[in-house]
Amino acid sequence: MKAPCCRDGKGLTLTGQLGEVMQESVKAAQSYIWSHAGRTSDRFDPALFRSSGVHVHVPAGAIPKDGPSAGVTMATALTSLYTKLPARQRCRDDR
């Protein structure tokens, strides 16, 4: 999944292999992040929200996501984009 920021764009552009559930998950994740941005991190830039669009693309062959896993994936990607912090590649302790 890719979610680049579109500096001169507005809104949310969704392309690729996104079913209805995933499209709703992206929109819900963006709304949640916007409404909680000030409370979750001081790294969020409000000007970036207002002046930039986001293009979410899920390439063909990607593992389909539905339900909660779709929302978490989208929220993680968008949070990473807006805070400019990379998401961790591992979610568990691999010793």
Task: Give the topology, please.
Layout: E1 5-6, E2 12-16, H1 20-40, H2 46-51, E3 53-58, H3 68-83
Helix pairs in contact: 1-3
Look at the structure and give the mean pLDDT.
Answer: 76
| Percentage of residues in DSSP E strands | 5-15%
Shape: globular
Total strands: the figure is 3
The largest sheet, given as strand count, sense and whether it forms a barrel, is: 3 strands, mixed
Count of helical regions: 3
| Cα-atom radius of gyration | 13 Å
- Structural class determined from secondary elements: alpha+beta
Could you explain how this protein is built, in words?
The chain has 95 residues and is an alpha+beta fold. Helices cover 45% and strands 14% of the residues. It has 3 helices and 3 strands; from the N terminus they run ββααβα. A 3-stranded mixed β-sheet has the order 1-3-2. α1 packs across α3. The protein is globular and about 35 Å long.
Write a compact overview of the structure shown.
This protein is of the alpha+beta class. It contains 3 helices and 3 strands, in the order ββααβα. It has a 3-stranded mixed β-sheet.
